[in-house]
Write a structure and sequence with these properties.
globular; ten-stranded antiparallel beta sheet; mainly beta
């Protein structure tokens, strides 16, 4: 009988003729996994940098043409005094084709601050014909290795993707080059995210400080492409349009890759 009561208590069942509440007994199970000694050497930082250079080159070589939509949004007075306000919102359709063709078509533009202040607030984005997206991997090009220092910050497992985090900084502060950190997807060895920090302004006569720039990529047809660019900057002197500071956001979507764009698409009304 004592053995039966003990068994019922262990199973969380009420004991016969027991008075008052019955508390469940929790049994915590412990397990151990034996240690495994891994003898294979880890990939070195130099090997990672070499693989990124090859991965980025391979990604670019697979693209013959592309077209996508870009939405740009600029907000003024994001730091200090003054209320944040929309300066401009514009949407573009961009076409690119190897080796040197590019066309950008403005689809929509809203400029509320231009009417209020009577100043030109056009923020024209320069779309290059290249497929390489140097804004992402500028510090990881082979010819730039001697200008930067690199450090492996960590390895993260995200789903079935192994991500390397690598930081970089200029070897000389006199160059004005930024520092930052990138996230490298080892499935393709391409950079999927980048955070850039500026120790000093790249254009001190105009910009007092660039707080940070973030660049993110996304997948389109099994290829990594630009997804979003975020930038915050302070002005050296307040400008009529952007005030003392501004945020700029670029969102890229609606991609079509290797669609066979005709050369005639890049000929304007003047026959060029």
């Amino acid at each position: 009988m004592i053995l039966l009561l003990s068994l019922l208590a262990a199973l969380g069942a009420p004991a016969p003729n027991a008075a008052g509440p019955t508390l469940a007994v929790e049994d915590t199970m412990h397990t151990e996994v034996p240690e495994v000694l891994v003898r294979a050497p880890r990939v070195t930082l130099d090997e990672i940098l070499d693989r990124v250079a090859r991965g980025e080159a391979r990604r670019e070589s697979l693209l013959t043409d592309q077209n996508f939509r870009v939405a740009m949004r600029v907000i003024r007075n994001v730091t200090g005094s003054g209320d944040p306000r929309l300066v401009e919102e514009s949407v573009w359709r961009v076409y690119r084709k190897r080796p040197d063709k590019v066309r950008a078509v403005l689809l929509r533009r809203v400029q509320p601050e231009r009417k209020k202040r009577g100043a030109n607030s056009d923020f024209n984005v320069d779309f290059s014909p290249g497929m390489g997206e140097e804004i992402v991997h500028f510090a990881f090009q082979p010819e730039m290795r001697k200008r930067f220092r690199y450090r492996l910050e960590g390895r993260d497992l995200v789903g079935d993707h192994l991500i390397y985090r690598v930081s970089f900084e200029p070897r000389s502060l006199l160059t004005g080059a930024p520092s930052g950190q990138v996230w490298i997807d080892t499935n393709d060895f391409v950079i999927v995210r980048e955070e850039v920090f500026f120790r000093q302004s790249p254009v001190p006569l105009v910009l007092k400080r660039v707080h940070r720039m973030i660049v993110e990529r996304r997948r389109a047809a099994d290829t990594w492409v630009l997804g979003r660019v975020l930038l915050r900057a302070e002005m050296t002197l307040p400008f009529p349009v952007v005030g003392n500071s501004f945020d700029m956001t670029l969102v890229y979507d609606d991609y079509a890759l290797n669609a066979g764009l005709p050369d005639s698409l890049f000929v304007d009304a003047r026959g060029r």
